[in-house]
């Protein structure tokens, strides 16, 4: 058997030095910090669209509720509501912007015409029975109804109402929706 010659003292050994290892850890730490910062920012911002969508859903629900109400010359409780072709045709209860005395969204009598919702506001979203909707206590809503022009109809004619629903919520969330409702009163001559 032949003996192996001893290793030469000047020969480089394979491996990583302590300085190289420390530099690798520093570079890796900086890269991971940057990546984690991006993930954190995207996670924090991901809740914002949900708040915006919830506010939009509330606004859409309220504007639908208002637009589905009658829009007649006379209050729906007036004897001539079905035949009046102008406010002059009402027996005693001509409609005007705003609720009639005692009417409310939850009260008896309830709102019974589109324009009754003018000035309505709520803090914490409630349903038609005035029960709080779970999870929506941080939102508030207001409704404005005003005469408007639309196409060939002028604002002065009173035949078109513009409905503006404003919903505010957590995180400075704000949604404003506008809708229109035109009058389709019966013609007294028919």
TrEMBL record:
Keywords: Membrane, Transmembrane, Transmembrane helix. The chain crosses the membrane at residues 21-40. This is Type II secretion system protein. It comes from Ideonella margarita.
């Amino acid at each position: 058997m032949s003996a192996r010659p001893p290793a030469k003292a000047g020969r480089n050994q394979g491996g990583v030095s302590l300085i190289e290892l420390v530099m690798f850890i520093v570079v890796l730490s900086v890269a991971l910090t940057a990546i984690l910062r991006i993930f954190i920012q995207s996670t924090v911002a991901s809740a914002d669209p949900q708040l915006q969508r919830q506010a939009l859903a509330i606004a859409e629900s309220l504007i639908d509720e208002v637009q589905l109400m009658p829009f007649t010359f006379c209050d729906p409780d007036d004897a001539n509501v079905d035949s009046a072709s102008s406010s002059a045709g009402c027996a005693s209860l001509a409609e005007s912007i705003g609720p009639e005395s005692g009417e409310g969204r939850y009260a008896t009598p309830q709102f019974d015409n589109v324009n009754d919702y003018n000035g309505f506001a709520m803090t914490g979203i409630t349903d038609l029975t005035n029960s709080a909707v779970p999870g929506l206590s941080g939102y508030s809503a207001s409704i404005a109804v005003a005469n408007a022009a639309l196409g060939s109809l002028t604002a002065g004619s009173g035949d078109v109402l513009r409905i503006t629903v404003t919903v505010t919520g957590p995180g400075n969330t704000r949604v404003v929706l506008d809708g229109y409702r035109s009058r389709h009163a019966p013609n007294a001559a028919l």
